Amino acid sequence: MPIGNTLGLPRGARAERLAPFVLVAPAVLIIVALRLWPLVLGVNFSFTGDGERNGTPVGLDNYAELLADPLFRTALGNVGLLVLLLPVAVAIPGLLATFIYLRVPGHRFFRSVYFFPAVLSPVIVGAIFNLMLGYDGPLNTALALIGLGPIDWLGDPGLAKFTVVGVHVWATFGMALVVFLAGYSTLDAALLDAAKIDGASLPRIIWHVIIPGLSRTIQFVVVTTMIGMLTSMFGLLYIMTSGGPEGSTYLPEFYVWMQQGQMNRPALASAASTVLFLIMLVVGVAQVALLRRAGSED
Questions:
Q1: Which residues, in sequence order, are bridge partners of residue 57?
Q2: pLDDT tens-digit map of 73-111
Q3: CATH value of 66-297 in 1.10.10.10, 1.10.3720.10, 2.40.40.20, 3.40.50.620
Q4: Other C-beta atoms within 10 Å of 249: how many?
């Protein structure tokens, strides 16, 4: 019922109708004040100039400069790579949660071990893997024992981006694992039992029972994982590669920091932030739409 129509109700009924709006209002005000309003200011600032043109309207000049910058185009290309690798980043915690839910031997121990990386700082994770993946590090030493040559995990432009993304997935999939386990608590166990009685194999159970039953959970994990990849990899990038080698590991988030903190180009950084926001919005909406469509077809 609209708020205006509550005026004709008894006082108690009016209070009951308005209670949800009153309870939600503080959270909405906080979001508007700390999220939406700064976003509007940032978008507006992206149409102004830097340096001698500071504060002067420049139209789309900053966006044209972004598209002409090879580093920013590389960052956008890496965003495409993240989108392609997203199913892997979601499938890993999903499969591990499935094994834990099905109570494979040692599932209690693995539940603790899998979540442990999520409590580590990205700086610590980056420092640990810098030591492990160094050219003379333990991993290459182990590979040499089986006759494989040393691999430049962080120095090869074609390999470094995959290395950093892999480390990020390892460091963050614990939270997605917890979300999947929470989703399993809403799954109808009778369906699993019926599938087992019918002799369905584990892949068939996962595809025909678990995935449709966890469709909303999967949607949530897909969107939050994608946002995390685009906005939470700065610490790892800074410690492991600093955007190198040859700018191959640049992401829009790192590009924004470089323009704002190193180049003193806040307006250009605001334009890059706006592009990053639009990318997250478009990718998130597209992913949810695809997942809903796939769920409806099942």
A1: 48
A2: 999 999 989 888 998 999 999 888 888 888 777 777 777
A3: 1.10.3720.10
A4: 26
Alpha carbons within 13 angstroms on the beta-carbon side of residue 22 total: 6
pTM of the model as a whole: 0.81
Looking at every residue in the chain, the average pLDDT score rounds to 85
CA–CA dist 170, 245 (Å, integer): 22
- Biggest CA–CA distance in the chain, Å, is 83
pLDDT in tens, 203-253: 888 888 888 888 888 888 988 898 888 888 988 999 999 988 888 999 998
DSSP classification of residue 48: B
DSSP helix, strand, coil percent of the chain (3-state; round to 5): 80, 0, 20
Asked if 171 and 236 touch (Cβ cutoff 8 Å), the reply is yes
Q: Which residue has the tokens 């694992």?
A: 177
What is the radius of gyration, based on Cα positions, of the chain? 24
What average pLDDT does range 268-285 have in this prediction?
Answer: 88
Contacts of 177 (CB under 8 A, 6+ apart): 93, 96, 97, 100, 114, 115
Tokens of 110: 């693995």
Question: What does the domain layout of the chain look like in residue ranges?
Answer: 66-297
